[in-house]
Structures are given as structure tokens and as C-alpha cells.
Design goal:
Layout: E1 14-21, E2 24-29, E3 35-40, E4 55-58, E5 67-74, E6 79-84, E7 90-94, E8 98-100
Antiparallel strand pairs: 1-2, 2-3, 4-5, 4-8, 5-6, 6-7
């Protein structure tokens, strides 16, 4: 989260629960469980995992919404290499266009 909300919220992590309209999100803060509604997108920063194999989601561009696993990330070039789960395509994307994915996937759900 940006520092507009002061040091109390700056650099804190949360999970987006809903996007009721473009540029607005509802999220739950990891540390306190506090629910924040009507948060503007420009106050939020995405988190890109450091661990290879972590689940990520593409946020912008033609592959927006694609869930991937992280193959590599390069801080110098500000890019990551990901493999899209659905098509198994390998893509290079900007770190700004990628975020950690914490949602369930079809294979995570027990269908017994």
C-alpha cells in the first residue's frame, strides 16, 4: 500500500477480495484482518513472489487474468518469465504487470 495512508499502512500486505468497479478494490489486510473498501488502485502495489514455482497472475496486457507459475525474475531488467497454466505457454512480462496469486485453482478443489 502506498504511503498516502501513513506509516500505519505503508508497505503492509493484503489480499484483494473484490473489484466492484474498474480501479477500485476491497481488500483484507494480512496482519490485522481489517477490511478496507473502496481502495483506489493507484494506492496499491503488487507483490511478486521471490520463489520459483510460485503462483502469479498477469494484471495487464493481452494475457490479463492468466494464472501462471513463476519460472524466473530479473530485478535488473524488471521482468519475469512465467508459464501460463492453461496453455503452458512461456511468456516474459514486466514485474509491474504481475502479482502473487493466492486464489484457488480448479486442481486445488476436491471434487469428490
Amino acid at each position: 500500500m502506498s504511503n498516502k495512508y501513513g506509516s500505519r499502512m505503508y508497505a503492509k500486505k493484503g489480499v484483494i477480495l473484490d473489484v466492484p468497479e474498474r480501479g477500485i478494490a476491497t481488500l483484507r489486510m494480512d496482519d490485522s484482518g481489517q477490511l478496507l473498501e473502496n481502495m483506489r488502485q493507484f494506492h496499491l502495489e503488487s507483490v511478486v513472489p521471490k520463489i520459483k514455482g510460485s503462483k502469479t497472475i498477469i494484471l495487464r496486457g493481452p494475457d490479463r487474468g492468466s494464472v501462471c507459475h513463476l519460472m524466473a525474475r530479473n530485478l535488473e531488467s524488471q521482468q519475469a518469465v512465467v508459464q501460463v497454466f492453461d496453455e503452458m505457454d512461456v511468456k516474459t512480462v514486466s514485474l509491474d504487470d504481475l502479482a502473487e496469486y493466492t486464489g484457488l485453482m480448479d486442481r486445488d478443489v476436491d471434487c469428490d
